[in-house]
Design goal:
Layout lengths: L1 E2 L11 H31 L4 H23 L2 E14 L1 E7 L13 H15 L4 E7 L3 E8 L2 H9 L13 H10 L9 E7 L8 H10 L3 E6 L6 E2 L19 E2 L3 H11 L3 E3 L5 H14 L3 E13 L1 H26 L1
Parallel strand pairs: 3-4, 3-6, 6-7, 7-10
Antiparallel strand pairs: 1-2, 2-11, 4-5, 8-9
Helix pairs in contact: 1-2, 2-9, 3-4, 5-6, 6-7
């Protein structure tokens, strides 16, 4: 026997104050009846087994409460074996960790917004394998393809702008590293989600996008930032901004044109990051899940336990009916 949601067992402690309250209520009711009827009339107006009925009702109410709580824990016994095939798409997320991602035109900053987007995406995944590639001036695989979304979250939390010492934004290198991360030459069921501000400093992004198309990989891009630009916080000065040799504040801008061209080249799509999940739904639910062929990752036999909560609800109903009959007896005897 096992329980589908054992956390509800903690609510059983509520039985203790409930029993005290019911006992106090019974005592209070008895005292009020005695005061109202008087000692002489009490025996004639009130059933002689009044106290026993009240005790029985208290026990019934406590048992009803207990059985309903036990039903909430979803007790299970008995099981069947089912063959389960896991299907999905291989998705590599390329995350820009260059210094420009610290710009605060998107609150709290571009990198934190991107990490939250990835975390939200992990909640949406339906059996797909996920991998992470971090990139700046160079790139590396932060998390290989996995079905373990908890492990992917651990790798995601470790990502920061200090992760890669080589600064800059090399979108071409990021795409090539992401293609290599698939570890298979099969030309289907592959998608790259590139999350960046799009400031490609290598000039080889479109060349790499063509290689992705030839490898059967669709690239979907999410632009982080604003076109008007934002200053870069200076990591060496508290509250200051990075400046060029002429003493001018350096601005980092979202380059949507480059990201749109990358997606168009591979048959993917581009969206700008917005508050909420509209951008993720557009890319994952409307594009990747609907338009990419799925493949089998693994087949396994799983033990499916049978839910038995209905028996506890039935027991609670029986005690409820019995408690109602006790109330009826009390009214009959009083009349």
């Amino acid at each position: 026997m096992k329980f589908g949601d054992p956390s509800y067992f903690h609510l059983l402690w509520a039985l203790v104050p409930l029993l005290f309250f019911l006992a106090w209520g019974n005592r209070k009711k008895y005292d009020l009846l005695v005061r109202f009827c008087g000692e002489t009339l009490f025996g004639k107006l009130v059933s002689p087994d009044f106290k026993e009925q009240q005790k029985a009702r208290t026990i019934c109410i406590a048992l009803i409460f207990a059985f309903l709580l036990l039903a909430l824990t979803r007790p299970q016994w008995g099981y069947n074996w089912e063959d389960i095939n896991q299907e999905g798409v291989d998705i590599i997320i390329g995350l820009d960790v260059s210094r420009s991602m610290l710009a605060e035109d998107i609150k709290p900053n571009r990198l934190e917004r991107a990490k939250r987007k990835i975390s939200d995406l992990l909640d949406m995944l339906k059996g797909d394998r996920i991998g992470l590639v971090a990139f700046a001036g160079t790139s590396f695989v932060q998390c290989p393809l996995t079905l373990d979304y908890s492990a992917a979250r651990i790798f995601l939390k470790a990502i920061d702008t200090d992760l890669i010492p080589v600064q800059g934004t090399a979108l071409g290198d990021a795409l090539r590293k992401s293609i290599q991360a698939f570890r298979t030459e099969e030309k289907k069921s592959k998608a790259i989600i590139l999350i960046t501000d799009g400031e490609d400093q290598s000039g080889r992004a479109l060349e790499a996008a063509k290689e992705a198309r030839e490898a059967g990989v669709r690239v979907f891009t999410i632009g982080i930032g604003k076109e008007i630009g934002a200053p870069l916080p200076n990591p060496d000065q508290s509250g200051g901004f990075l400046k060029n040799e002429q003493g001018e504040v350096i601005l980092t801008k979202l380059d949507e044109t480059t990201l749109q061209k990358i997606s168009l080249e591979t048959g993917g799509s581009y969206v700008r990051s917005v508050t909420g999940d509209i951008d993720l739904k557009t890319i994952y639910l409307d594009q990747i899940s609907q338009k990419l062929d799925k493949k089998n990752f693994k087949s396994e036999r799983r033990k499916i336990w049978q839910e038995r909560f209905q028996w506890f609800i039935f027991a609670a109903l029986l005690f409820l009916l019995y408690e109602s009959s006790l109330s009826g007896k009390k009214r009959e005897s009083s009349s």
